[in-house]
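Recall that a protein's primary structure is simply its ordered list of amino acids. Everything else, from secondary elements to tertiary packing, is in principle encoded there. The following example makes that idea concrete.
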Amino acid sequence: MAANYAEQWLHHMEKEYYEYGNADARPNVVSYTAVISAFARCSSHPQKNTNNKTPHTPHAANRSESVLLRLLQLSTRECDEAGGNSVQTTAQQLTPDVMAYNSVISAWANTVGKDPLATKNSERWLKILLEEGGAAEADAVSFNSVINAYAREATYNGSKAAKRAEQWFMDMKIRGIEPTTITYGSLIKAWSNSRSPEAPERAEFWLQAYRQQQQQQVGHNRQDAIIVYNSAVNAWATSGRSDSLDGAIRLISEMENGGSNLRQKLLDAPSTLYKFTPPPPDTITYNTLLKGCSSFPGGGSNKVKNGPTHSKLHEKALSIAFKTYNHMLISSSSRSSRVQPDSHTFSIILSCISRQTPYAEKRNNPSYKEIIAKIFHDCCTLGMVNDIVLSALKNACSCLPDEGISNKFFTELTTDNFTTKNSDGVVSSSSKDDYNTITSIHNIPAQWKINVHAGGGLGRSQAPTERAMLLSRQKKNVFRSSNP
């Protein structure tokens, strides 16, 4: 692991200088900060060993902290030996800068969910920087890391963590540090992760604050803005409220229309303000809406509740999901489109249909099987099949009347056009009778997964536009007459 090697070289430099007196090998603050940053990056993206199970660098946040503590001890010792006159001594070369502190703060923030004390440790180091940092002054990165830690913490501690993130934002403003796009994105993410009933309003409050800040700037990065908007969409979609989909759709419409409903307000604003327009939606935006449809009230299990009220909820969720999915297919036909259905799209829509279709409908209505088959065919055509899609497909098939029918239907879908080449290069069909032997991505045709990368989305080649155009023509009205 790179961080381990970096620390070994740091130990070698220390030994050369402190034991053998080699002044040329004397480590300075850059040496220590490089090792601290290496461990911080490990905490964010842990590398696996050859068995793909255990990280090479366990406790990376602890190790980054220990290096910083060693740096602080050396700096203090050399200051004391120099009689406190650090300006004229080499002690300055060992005084930690803000980058060293930020790396440790970020390292702990990245381990939230893995270490129960991660958020508190991230916060503790920010307080140390603020109170004892000396020449090192906290900046936006310092506060953003702690706010992001609480955004992650909100997944477990709900609105309590989100409110704590807001308190750090206020502290940031009081100290005269200008919030960034990441700051607002993390605040909205905190409320989104909290899944509390008040999350949508709080998310929109911070979205509005972000808009106002952007109006004061000469220009804004639309790629950064899409992250902020998608977090706000997610806050609505996952809130569990009866108006969750309505709120998400309203924000997406604003993005689709370039903020047309805000234009008049902006035109009436002082001329010193720059005109901020929302970014256009991307694949993540629509995938977020699909997730909201899947978890919409009433769709929590395969055997969803019956009755007029729940029936309307199912119909609403399915209607929005089908329209969104159809829109994504049509949009993907454009070469310049930011919307390209990926593996997540197909797994979510399959899960949504399975969860939101009333149990009796799945057992008795032939259109249920037809829609599942069409969606999986789309996924194969675009080369987006991965293990997540196969799992969602298997769950959708398992809702059929009995296990035999489920197994047969799944096998029919996954063995359609399943071909192999023998030693002579002759293509022959393969027969798969075992339901469980074809649930792995390794057992399907390469063409079905050609555009999938490890993250589940588009690979380097992107989804073939010609295929997307064909699908868009075929699917424009595909669900109008076949809703389950």
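The two ends are 52 Å apart (CA to CA). The beta strands are 419-421, 427-429.
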